[in-house]
Amino acid sequence: MRSQFSYLLLAVLGLKNGVINTGNSTGRFADINGIHTQEKVEAIIASSISSLRKQFGAKKIGAVGYCFGGKYVARFLAPGGGLDAGFTAHPSGVTTDEWAAVGGPLSIAFGTLDGSNTPAQRAAAEAIFTTKNLTFQTTLYSNAEHGFAVRTDLSIPQKKFAQESAYFQAVRWFDAWIK
């Protein structure tokens, strides 16, 4: 499938047996790490990257990861991981070691109301990227909670702005580093 911005898209949706909820409830999300182990998720992503290169002839590959997926954008942006650039919004569970291993261009959308990414955690990630002289961008959206880039109350102007802006942040990032 091609996006409206002429990118080949491969959607890796690994929530088998999980709950995808369009409201603000997290459903059975707490179970996700038990169902989707790091080993299983990494095998799916590695296979997807391989398919994009071999079957579709992709020269450059970017990845988008929301929440749970942000960890894997970071992990696969490490040298030899197979990604050339990445974008994540409200990433969860990313360790400082995983941020430190990132070797490619990375853009992150954070929200001020996201308890998964405290000011100290955001500052630590930025310090790592700066020390490494990594090509990176972080944007902090006001009044944006965890999950704002995929589900939020669009009747609140700040939240609508944050969601739309995070989308265009990703598009501009890939225009710069993947196209």
TrEMBL record:
Domain Dienelactone hydrolase: 37-176
Cross-referenced PANTHER family: DIENELACTONE HYDROLASE, PROTEIN AIM2
Protein name, as recorded: Dienelactone hydrolase domain-containing protein
Residues making up the signal peptide according to the UniProt record: 1-18
Example GO molecular function: hydrolase activity
Pfam families: DLH (PF01738)
Gene3D superfamilies assigned to the protein according to its UniProt record, in alphabetical order: alpha/beta hydrolase (3.40.50.1820)
SUPFAM superfamilies: alpha/beta-Hydrolases
Family matches, as InterPro entries: AB_hydrolase_fold (IPR029058), Dienelactn_hydro (IPR002925)
UniProt keywords, alphabetically: Signal
